[in-house]
Structure formats: C-alpha cells, structure tokens
Design goal:
26% helix; 2 domains; D-amino Acid Aminotransferase, Chain A, domain 2; six-stranded antiparallel β-sheet; alpha+beta; 27% strand; D-amino Acid Aminotransferase, Chain A, domain 1; 8 helices; eight-stranded mixed β-sheet; binds pyridoxal-5'-phosphate
Length: 295
C-alpha cells in the first residue's frame, strides 16, 4: 500500500544558534487538512520547493538541494532558510522511508498566510513512482517555444526563471501539450532558437564525445542531477561543458538524456519525431551511479 509522511516546520531565523531542531517539527496526519484557507502557496503558487530522491532510506544530494532552496528563497525575497533546520527535517523524513526502494522527499517553503507573520514550511515523504521502464526504454520529446528570448532572464529577473517556485502550472501544461503531440515530454526552447530544459528535468546532449548542457544563466533551473552526473563524468575523464545550445545542435547529438532527481536519467529516443540514437549501456551506468548513495 502507498505510504506517506509529512511534518510541518516552524521556520527558524537563519541565525538561530540552536543545534537541535527536533522541537520545531510537528508530524501531521497526511489524510487530514493542514493548510489555512489564506495560504499564499495554494492561492498564488507563491513559494518554493525541492524534490529530493531517496534510495534505500538515503536522501540524495541533500547539500545541493539545500543550496538551491536558499537560492530560490533569495530570488523570491523569502526569509533565508535555516540550513541545519532543513537538513534535520530531511533526516527525519528519510527515517520514515522504507529501508528498501525509492522514495521522494519534498521541501516546501511558502510565503505563508496572507498578511501573516511567518512563512509556512513543510516536508513530505512518499513512495516514488516506478521509473524502471522509462529509464530503460526512454522517452520521445517535442520542442516547445517558451515564448521568450535568451536574454529575457537578465532583462526581467522578476520572472523568477532560475527559481524552483511552486508555480508549475505552465510546466504541467507543457507536458500535456507534448502528450497531445504524441510525445512523452517536452524540451523548452527560446523564441530566438536556443535550447533550455524540460518542464521537470535538465537536458544533457552528447556531441562529438563531449557532454553538453544548456548554461543555467539562460533562465533555467540548475539541476542537481546534471551537476552530480557532470562531476561523475569529469572524474572518469570525460569532457563536460555548459554552453548556449542552438536548437540545431540537437540534430548533431549521438545521445541525449533528460535527468532529474526522481526519474533519474532517461534516454531521449526522438526529438520532434526525429530518432535519436540510444546508448543503453551508458544510460544504465548513469542510473547505477545515480542510484548509489550520493551526498
Ligand atoms: N529543470 C526543471 C524545470 C525542474 O523542475 C527540475 C526538477 O524538477 C530540473 C530541471 C532537474 O533538477 P534536479 O536534477 O535537481 O531534480
């Protein structure tokens, strides 16, 4: 049977000197109502989140996820999350995961109740979907215009393009559009012809033996999975690069993946109905690495 765990955090100020934050966590009944009607997360999607993969009760890459939570908070003018408090909350959530198998821990920091004094914060843990098949078989993707140019993030930082905000309605709409077009997922591109990211994953291309990903300054989320995989590849002598990737470069790739914390590395089998070769062996080694304990 599906299991779930949730706890509410009473957010500490970032300079709170306590070392034990267990008293600031309240486990809640996952089946019972928990949020106030005035919550800005539900009313406006005004908040940020992180999804952390868990393997055999080990939460993966907690440090990079907490770094990104802090980065998103700064972009959204939310109070600085107390790193140690959030780390301990992840630890408690991980302890509630089953000893074997994959799970997902979500961290949510919301603006809170309208005109309220503090943000609302909570952490959930749940069983991860079974991604075994998609990791082996791969996915077909279509490119979708995100409706802005490569220079938009610099010109309009209030669009919060590099923050992991709770406003994912557009990302979900893109996946539905991809399905309407007969694909499984989407790759966002700029209206001036550059590649960005998928609605819930980063893109990695292999071109002439080099591993390339779109540079995060183009208004995309810097993926923790991509970061981890690049470090792993570099350690094994491969060349990795952040680049401004024109849409035409995708046709030169002899392998391509979407990577993210829970689905991990899935090979792309076609982009806009043009077949892409799949390196099954390398994909399997990516996922073997991604499923190993990572800090
Ligand atoms: N890009 C977007 C828009 C995402 O939502 C995600 C993850 O959900 C990613 C990239 C991949 O990030 P990570 O590897 O940290 O899961």
């Amino acid at each position: 049977m599906a299991w779930r765990f949730a706890l509410v955090i009473d957010p500490a100020a970032s300079d709170d000197p306590r070392t034990d934050f267990s008293g600031t966590f309240t486990p809640i009944d996952v089946a019972a109502p928990a949020l106030s009607v005035g919550e800005m997360s539900t009313q406006r999607g005004d908040g940020i989140f992180e999804s952390i993969g868990v393997v055999d009760r080990h939460a993966q890459e907690v440090g990079p996820h907490l770094d990104r939570l802090a980065h998103s908070a700064a972009l959204c003018d939310l109070p600085v999350p107390h790193r140690e408090q959030w780390r301990q909350a992840v630890e408690v959530a991980a302890e509630h995961c089953p000893p074997h198998g994959e799970a997902v821990i979500k961290l949510i920091l919301s603006r809170g109740v309208e005109h309220g004094p503090t943000p609302t914060a909570w952490v959930t843990a749940a069983e991860a979907p079974d991604n075994t098949r998609v990791r082996e078989r791969g996915i077909r993707v279509v490119t979708l215009d995100r409706g802005y140019g490569l220079d938009t993030p610099a010109k309009a930082p209030w669009l919060l393009l590099g923050a992991k905000t709770l406003s994912y309605a557009v990302n979900m709409a893109a996946i539905r559009e991809a399905r309407r077009r007969g694909a499984d997922d989407a790759i966002f591109v700029t209206s001036d012809g550059f590649v960005l990211e998928a609605p819930t994953a980063s893109l990695i291309l292999r071109v002439d033996g080099r591993f390339v990903t779109p540079a995060p300054n183009g208004g995309i989320l810097h993926g923790t999975t991509q970061l981890s995989l690049f470090a792993h590849l570099a350690e094994h002598g491969h060349e990795v690069a952040y680049e401004t990737v024109p849409v035409s470069a995708m046709a030169q790739a002899d392998a391509a993946w979407l990577v993210s914390s829970v689905r991990l590395a899935v090979p792309i089998t076609a982009i806009d109905a043009v077949e892409v070769p799949v390196d099954a062996e390398l994909t399997a080694s990516f996922n073997q690495y991604l499923l190993s304990p990572r800090d």
